[in-house]
Automatic annotation (TrEMBL):
Gene Ontology molecular functions: metallopeptidase activity
Cell division is among the record's keywords: no
A Pfam family recorded for this sequence: Rce1-like
Domain CAAX prenyl protease 2/Lysostaphin resistance protein A-like: 136-245
Name this protein carries in UniProt: CPBP family intramembrane metalloprotease
Alphabetized InterPro entries for the sequence: MmRce1-like (IPR042150), Rce1/LyrA-like_dom (IPR003675)
Organism classification: Bacteria, Thermotogati, Thermotogota, Thermotogae, Thermotogales
Keyword Transmembrane helix recorded: yes
Keyword terms of this UniProt record: Hydrolase, Membrane, Metalloprotease, Protease, Transmembrane, Transmembrane helix
TM stretches of this protein: 21-41, 47-70, 96-118, 138-157, 169-188, 208-226, 258-275
C-alpha cells in the first residue's frame, strides 16, 4: 500500500519500495543484542575494556544494519539520497531548527520550575555544575553525547527504517511500529553494569515502564520533524541529541519523568489532531532531487 508520501513525489519512489524495515529490525536487534549479551553474560562493566568495545559495537547495530542493506541493494541513487539527508542543513530550515532545539529544554524547564514552586525534590545537576566549572569540557561532552546515541541510532531508525515503513503504512502507524521496536531494542541495557538503565532506572520498576513507553510516544515527534524537514536524517540526529543532552544537563526525578511523558503525550496528540495523520506534515513530502 503506497501512501501520500509516495504519491506526492516527482522523483521515482522505486528506490524505496524494496526497503524492508522488518529485515532491518531483525538485523539491528541481532547485531546489537549479540554484542550486548556478551557483556551481560560476562558481567563486564560497560565503561571498562572490553565492555566498552562490545557496548559501542552493539550501539551501532542500527548503523551496521542499514549499511549492509543499502550496500546489498547496489543502488547509487539510494546512497546519494541517503547521504544528502544526513548532511544537508538546508532541508531543515530556521523554523524547524528552533523547534528541534527548544522542545525538550522547554519541557524539562517547565517541570523543574514546577518542582521549585511546589517544593518537590530536585536532582543534583552534577553534570551541569561540572560543565560550568570546566567550560573546556562542554565540546568533548557534546561530541560524546552525539556519538553514543543520536548518530549510530538515527542513521538506521529514521535514516532507513522510517522510509520503508511509510511506503506501507501512514506516518502515525509507522511511528508506533518504529517506536515499539526502538523501545524493545533498549531492554538489554537494563542488565548491563554501568548503564543509566541498570544503575538508576532498574528493570521492572515504574521508571522502567516510563522509559519503555517513552520511545513509542516520542517517535511521533521524530516522524513529525522528519517529514516536515523533507525527510532529513540530520534533523532526527539533532533532535535525538537535544533530548539526550537536555536529560544530562536538566535531569528529572521519577515524578519528573512521569510529568515529562504526560507533556510529550499531550504534544503528540496535538500534532496528530492538527496534522494529517497520513503524513504528520504541513505540506506534501518530497524526496530530495537525486
Amino acid at each position: 500500500m503506497l501512501n501520500s508520501l509516495q504519491k506526492s513525489n516527482k522523483v521515482t519512489i522505486k528506490i524505496y519500495e524494496n526497503s524492508n524495515p522488518w529485515i532491518f529490525f531483525i538485523l539491528t536487534l541481532s547485531i546489537s543484542w549479540f554484542f550486548w549479551m556478551w557483556i551481560i553474560l560476562s558481567g563486564w562493566n560497560v565503561w571498562k575494556v572490553p565492555g566498552i568495545i562490545f557496548g559501542a559495537l552493539g550501539l551501532f547495530g542500527p548503523t551496521f544494519a542499514e549499511i549492509f542493506l543499502i550496500s546489498k541493494s547496489n543502488n547509487k541513487e539510494r546512497w546519494k539520497d541517503y547521504w544528502h539527508r544526513v548532511f544537508s542543513f538546508k532541508q531543515i530550515g530556521k523554523k524547524w531548527f528552533l523547534i528541534i532545539i527548544i522542545i525538550f529544554p522547554l519541557i524539562h524547564a517547565i517541570i523543574t520550575l514546577a518542582s521549585l514552586i511546589t517544593g518537590t525534590h530536585l536532582p543534583s545537576f552534577e553534570t551541569a555544575k561540572n560543565l560550568i566549572s570546566n567550560p573546556w569540557k562542554i565540546l568533548p561532552f557534546a561530541i560524546f553525547v552525539l556519538l553514543f546515541g543520536p548518530i549510530p541510532e538515527e542513521l538506521g531508525w529514521r535514516g532507513y527504517a522510517l522510509d520503508g515503513l511509510q511506503t506501507k503504512y501512514n506516518a502515525l502507524v509507522s511511528s508506533f511500529i518504529l517506536g515499539t521496536v526502538w523501545s524493545f531494542w533498549h531492554i538489554p541495557l537494563f542488565f548491563i553494569k554501568g548503564t543509566f538503565q541498570y544503575e538508576q532506572l532498574k528493570f521492572g520498576t515504574l521508571d522502567f515502564w516510563l522509559y519503555i513507553l517513552g520511545p513509542i510516544i516520542i517517535s511521533i515527534l521524530f516522524t513529525w520533524i522528519y517529514n516536515n524537514t523533507n525527510r532529513s536524517t540530520l534533523s532526527a540526529i539533532l533532535f535525538h541529541f537535544t533530548i539526550n543532552f537536555t536529560g544530562e544537563l536538566i535531569p528529572l526525578t521519577e515524578r519528573g519523568r512521569i510529568y515529562s511523558l504526560i507533556l510529550i503525550t499531550l504534544l503528540s496528540i496535538v500534532i496528530v489532531i492538527t496534522m494529517d495523520p497520513k503524513t504528520l506534515a504541513e505540506k506534501a513530502i518530497k524526496i530530495s532531487e537525486i
